[in-house]
Amino acid sequence: MKKLGEILVDKGLINHEQLNKALKKQSETGDRLGKLLIKMDIVSEEQLFTFLSKQYGVVMFNEQELTIPADVQKLVKYDLVYNYGIIPFKVTDKGIHIGFSDFRVLNDIDEISFKTGKNVIPVLFPDSMYEKILSDIKEIDYGEEDYYFQSFKKKIETEFNKGAGVEALLSAIVSFEPNLTKVFFAEGSAPAIRKIGRFYKLNTDPMKKEDILNYIKSLTDEATRKTLLHKKTVRFYKTIADKNFFINIVRQKSSYLIVLTITSSEIPKFNNLGFKNDVSRYILEPTKGFYFFIAPLGHGKATTMASIVNHFNKSKTRNILFLEKQSMYEIVSDKSIVTKLDVGMRTYNKENFFKIIYDIDPEIIFLMDIDSLEILDMALKFVESGRTVYACYEGGSISGALEKLFLLDNSENKYYVNKFASH
């Protein structure tokens, strides 16, 4: 008997190269082949399950909504649901209809029928629906309350078309997409999603300017919106639907783009970041001076800085100042004293901002960005007085970073950059 992969190749749904890639991945993860083919965006869920229903001669569930009455639940004990991976959802004159996703269940139909005392009619559920319902059933009072399911497509259409706010829409997306990594909102386009192995647009009407502006208003405060108008881009962290998002908003002529990236709030240990041992020792056992981290946008500068701060905080007694830009990481003083300041404060009260820093008199300073010569000058003064400074800067190379520093201020840049280079 041919295996599923061979059948899919014979029918032209996938080719040998795609099958081999999926099989290699299967040997690493242990996941079912069909699930991996969908995850890897080789076939869509609809394509695969429509084919499987025809191939094995079983009915496929195609509705967008489903109610499972408590009375139906009572006909199949929860341990049977759990052990066989089945979902009882309807009773007719023909028998009890059960949803399944793993075709091995078909070998157990007679046994399930015997244990329930009813004729069993198997119905194929798409993976996303099947996994969502099984997960939800664990959380309800099984057999005592009706359960209502709404498909991802239906839920999103309902939320979007009724004008739901950005937080309600994101909550709906997060609840159905455990592998979500990014969400995109752009004027003139339906919302788009990137998850592991796949990028796709939601089945909704294109977003209007009014939708985007309302989302921006919901996500930002007045000060951030002023920055957006002036600089044409803002970046910040926000927690929505119990997920931490790094949010980029970009102004493009007369339109806006919003990109939300899911991040983790747990600070990784520095030793797990992949630095070589000699580099790690150099960073974590510093002499006095300037430690400069250069990397392009989105390459882990914030995570690296937070992990170094956390290392000192938990292992050494130090007075630490962390100048950040709306970091998602929460660092509570442990062995060290850690003072966190938002560098945006200086925009509104520059004199007090620097006075606070000098009053704190830190031993170690962490800078999430050097975006002005004033910040660079302050850092250099601390280095000259025997302190240690760790700083991040956005760039693809040291030469590129220095070139950007030269452009900070045409009148004084040479003095400051030469001074920095000497450290």
Task: Report what the structure shows.
- This protein is of the alpha/beta class and 423 residues long.
- The chain folds into three domains: 44-150, no CATH class; 153-263, 2-Layer Sandwich (Beta-Lactamase); 270-422, Rossmann fold (3-Layer(aba) Sandwich).
- The protein contains 18 helices and 17 strands.
- It has helices at 4-10, 16-29, 33-39, 45-56, 70-73, 78-84, 109-116, 127-137, 152-161, 166-176, 209-219, 222-231, 277-284, 301-315, 350-360, 373-384, 398-406, 413-422, and strands spanning 59-60, 65-68, 87-92, 95-100, 120-124, 147-150, 180-186, 192-195, 198-201, 233-240, 243-252, 255-263, 289-295, 319-324, 337-342, 364-367, 388-394.
- A six-stranded antiparallel beta sheet has the order 9-8-7-12-11-10. Strands 13-17-16-14-15 form a five-stranded parallel beta sheet, with helices on both faces.
- β3 (87-92) and β4 (95-100) form a beta hairpin.
- α9 (152-161) packs antiparallel against α10 and α16 runs parallel beside α18.
- The longest helix has 15 residues, at 301-315.
- It is elongated.
- It starts with a helix and ends with a helix.
- 22% of the residues are buried.
- The mean pLDDT is 84.
Brief digest:
The protein is of the alpha/beta class.
List keywords for this structure.
Rossmann fold, Type II secretion system protein GspE N-terminal domain-containing protein, Beta-Lactamase, ATP hydrolysis activity, T2SS_E_N_sf, about 425 residues, 3 domains, about 40% helix, P-loop_NTPase, 6-stranded antiparallel β-sheet, 18 helices, alpha/beta
